[in-house]
Write a structure and sequence with these properties.
With about 375 residues, the protein is α/β, with parallel strands linked by helices. Helices cover about 20% and strands about 15% of the residues.
């Protein structure tokens, strides 16, 4: 799907023109920054892949012989490992896998097999919390200090607007854990700046010549953002050996779940403007504006008429894995296609655990469902 989107922009000339630069295919704030510092289990920091050369670079940088030589498990692969009793300890930081991962019945069953689940979270009442054995409160956004990277590679400082009190930042929690495990020298950070400066030094290891974050000044970032790779991208060339673009053909292999007579509708899930994610913050704000609710199902009016439904009717949506209830909203959507926002906390009782073979991303947008009026 990502290749198809990229090809469409390239073929139509909507790339490398004014206002049409390459963006990260990212949904969450600072997901770009998370990738840069090695937040993905499948990459090293500084956008370095797991190659023998990169592993040698990082091992030498950290003076360590303990670096894994191959990518780690992605989130759903960890749950699959837990289902096979092959995962002993799971530390979860500021996410809610029981809520957000697909095939929730399977996820809940697998989570019960993990001997120790630690949840680090700024908010109470996550769906995962009932499966965790230890819960550690952490600072939310607005109280944290650090940096973030927007999807256009703009690096900025995040300055807290209030004192943090007794709560800890994420790096402080992990530093304490590291020191408690005996790695006192490796986790002897004293400030957020020292954490950032170690990462800056690591960007010099990257074979990616565009990743010049080592040139940024942490103290200046609060007032002067830094765009990494900015000067190198100005020649309007692509990051290939000859500077020319590549178009890769895309074949639909139909690996996804397909509708059939028993489940004739295709379910899409995703964000809305008003809630964006789960509504952990926005749902608590009383606004004069008319926002979309947390839970609903959008359906083509002609399909609704065929099913004998009108707006605000409550329906049950079934898949091969589970069911949920929601109220009907008419929408300009393709026939035989429905949409449920991810702010509906039961949505992943429906979705399948099918992973893309390369990215390991779950296929949240191809679930076969049927709809019945309550």
């Amino acid at each position: 799907k990502n290749l198809a989107v990229n090809n469409l922009y390239i073929i139509t000339g909507k790339i490398n023109e004014q206002g049409c630069g390459p963006f990260s295919l990212t949904g969450q704030p600072n997901a770009m920054g998370g990738r840069e510092v090695g937040g993905l289990s499948t990459t090293l920091a500084a956008h370095m892949d797991y190659t023998p050369e990169n592993c040698k670079r990082v091992s030498a940088f950290w003076n360590s012989n303990c670096l894994p030589s191959k990518p780690g498990l992605t989130a759903f692969e960890m749950i699959e490992a837990a289902d096979n009793h092959a995962l002993d300890i799971l530390i979860i930081c500021h996410t809610d896998p029981v809520y957000h991962l697909p095939d929730r019945h399977f996820v809940e069953k697998a989570m019960k097999n993990i001997s120790l689940v630690v949840e680090i979270n700024a908010y109470k009442g996550s769906e995962t919390s009932s499966f965790s054995h230890i819960r550690i409160p952490a600072l939310p956004f607005g109280y944290k200090e650090g940096t973030q990277t927007n999807m256009d590679r703009t690096l900025t400082r995040v300055v807290p607007f209030a004192p943090k009190g007794e709560l800890l930042q994420d790096w402080e929690i992990f530093s304490k854990l590291g020191r408690a495990l005996g790695y006192e020298q490796a986790f002897d950070f004293t400030t957020t700046k020292t954490v950032f400066e170690e990462y800056q030094a690591m960007t010099k290891l990257s074979p990616n010549r565009h990743l010049n974050i080592y040139e940024a000044d942490y103290d200046l970032l609060a007032n002067k953002p830094f765009v990494w790779g900015e000067t190198l991208f100005k020649d309007n060339r692509f990051m290939t050996d000859d500077g020319r673009v590549r178009v890769y053909s895309v074949t639909n292999l139909e690996r996804s779940e397909q509708p059939d007579q028993s489940y004739p509708f295709l379910l899409l899930t995703g964000r809305t403007r008003d809630q964006w994610h789960s509504g952990s913050k926005t749902a608590q704000v009383k606004s004069l504006l008319k926002h979309k609710p947390l839970t609903f199902i959008e359906i083509n009016p002609d399909d609704a008429k065929t099913l004998g439904l009108t707006e605000e009717d409550e329906v049950i949506i079934f898949s091969k894995r589970g069911k949920l209830t929601a109220k009907v909203k008419y929408a300009n959507i393709n026939p035989k296609t429905v949409f449920i926002p991810l702010s509906h906390k039961d949505v992943n009782y429906l979705t399948p655990g099918i992973l893309d073979p390369q990215s390991k991303e779950p296929d949240y947008n191809h679930t076969a469902v049927r709809i019945e009026k309550v």
